[in-house]
Design brief:
The chain has two domains: 85 residues, Endolytic murein transglycosylase (Dna Ligase, domain 1), CATH 3.30.1490; 194 residues, no CATH class. It is built from eleven helices and six strands. The longest helix has 27 residues. It starts with a helix and ends with a helix.
Length: 333
């Protein structure tokens, strides 16, 4: 009799084990997902509604299993865009949606772009949603100017609003400004405000892509400001000619362009332009705040991506002649 009861108990335990293994198999391993699939969960979506959608899209086998799995993770699904990988079980999908493990993407904003160019770049990203412009006078992101945004790589959830990315960039630039104020460090004597700092940094940013060369370029313009010389910076003319767009569309900058009537034209007007001509990175700002100690007043391209610097006009003329010769050879090729 005792032996019979033990056999029955063992059978029940074995059956229970089989059932547990089956449930674990359903929860953790089985999956009808054959290819990576993107699913968007909107605000206010219910667990039942999401489960039904997933079942009708052949992403889960059982509505009940998914709902149970969500309950084990807190009982709610979070809004966002989810990349469901091939072979994902109902348990894994529930885990992703309950924890908000949304798909993410890197948004790379190069240094030296205008606000207009950055907005166009964001509009070209299919991973983002929404417009780049707004009309709320109370919201700073609705009234952006060049120099307000910090170029960087921003990792955001897929489906993030474009205005939200612009706000991330704006806030990061505000933090950089606040951090500089907190240090108590002064800008070079000829620069009187944060606007002056970023304005000169934007010119440096547009003149050279080389971080190591930026402090030297900054020193040239600071030396010219000290001597009351016109800056004669080509990028300011481009900005003036394009109405602040910053893109000549492949057209060359000609001598006649240097006479364009604009407060941004530093060939015509003394001092800095009224505001930045681009959005700048940390290297350009650092270069302006910590310029190289030079007597240089001129520079010209050297044909290899860098520049040759000179402290007299005579040396600059020779460097310029060398650059014209290099250009002539390049044009022949």
């Amino acid at each position: 009799m005792l032996f019979s009861r033990l056999r029955t108990l063992h059978a029940v335990i074995a059956l229970g084990g089989i059932i547990c293994l089956y449930v674990m198999y359903i929860f953790l391993w089985t999956s009808p997902v054959r290819t990576m699939t993107t699913v968007v969960i909107d605000d206010g979506a219910t667990v039942s509604g999401v489960a039904t959608r997933l079942k009708s899209s052949d992403l889960i086998d059982s509505v009940g299993v998914f709902k149970t799995a969500v309950k084990l993770h807190g009982g709610r699904v979070q809004r966002g865009m989810y990349d469901i990988p091939r072979g994902a079980s109902a348990f894994r999908i529930a885990h992703m949606m309950a924890r908000g493990d949304v798909a993410s993407v890197n948004i790379v904003i190069p240094e030296g772009l205008t606000v207009w160019q950055i907005k166009n770049l964001l509009l070209g990203s299919a991973a983002l949603t929404g417009p780049v412009d707004c009309s709320d006078s109370e919201n700073p992101v609705c009234d952006l100017h060049d120099g307000d945004l910090f170029p960087d790589t921003y990792r955001v959830a897929r489906g993030t609003r474009r205005l939200a990315v612009l706000e991330l960039m704006r806030k990061k630039m505000v933090r950089i400004h606040d951090n500089w104020l907190a240090t108590g460090r002064r800008a070079p004597a000829v620069l009187h405000s944060w606007n002056d700092i970023v304005t000169l940094a934007s010119i440096v940013q547009k003149e050279t892509p080389r971080a190591a060369e930026m402090p030297v370029v900054a020193s040239v313009y600071l030396n010219r400001l000290k001597k009351k010389m016109r800056l004669q910076a080509d990028p300011t003319v481009v900005y003036a000619l394009t109405g602040g767009l910053g893109d000549m569309g492949g057209r060359a900058l000609l001598r006649g362009h240097l006479k364009v009537d604009s407060p941004y034209n530093t060939y015509v007007h003394y001092g800095l332009p009224p505001a930045p001509i681009a959005n700048v990175g940390r290297n350009a700002i650092t270069a302006v705040l910590n310029p190289a100690d030079t007597n240089y007043l001129y520079f010209v391209a050297d044909g290899s991506g860098g520049h040759r610097f000179a402290d007299t006009y005579e040396i600059h003329q020779k460097n310029h002649a060398d650059w014209r010769a290099i250009k002539k050879i390049k044009n022949k090729k």
